[in-house]
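Data deposition worksheet. Section B asks for the primary sequence of the deposited chain exactly as it was used as input, without tags or linkers unless they were present during the calculation. Section C holds the resulting structure in token form. Section D is free text for depositor observations; keep each observation to a single sentence. Incomplete worksheets are returned to the depositor.
Section A, Depositor: J.P.
Section B:
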Amino acid sequence: MNVPNCLTIVRILLIPIFVITLGYHQAGNDLLRLLALAIFSLASLTDALDGLIARTRNERTKLGSYLDPLADKLLLNVSFVLLAITESLPCRLPAWMPVVVVSRDTILVIGGALILITTGELKVKPSFLGKMTTVSQMGVVILTLLNLPLGVLKPIWISAICFTIVSFFDYILKGGRILNEKRA
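Section C:
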């Protein structure tokens, strides 16, 4: 297994540690919140590094093309849900935010599965909008865990949700084109 895929697996393995850290967080005890921030930041760093290494060393693999976006979706979906439901956090995401993020990713995964079943292949290639969505969502998690003032966070939250929605429609259109090309 190559280095980029190992980094992706590390990102997946950091998810339960992140969950446990936030799960034990108590109001007034910032140590666990900061530890969760460090764990999430490390996981985000592995995302940047695995892509960079795969491109610069020409170590792209089919496994990595599936595993990397799956790891991102798992990390971000879990993070958004936790940041909305963990009552002890000084700043929580509104409940509608994880609904948007999780719904988008669920529909995209189902769409990808349908493309695979229908066409016999699925080439997972992230778009620029998809990458911007991932970066903006990671920013939401990091900045929310930093406990920035709500006046600073709200525009960042809205921006990330806008990227989430726009990239959703972009992927839906691309998936529709793939399915239409196979029918013709």
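Section D:
DSSP finds six helices and no strands in the chain.
Residues 150-183 form the longest helix (34 residues).
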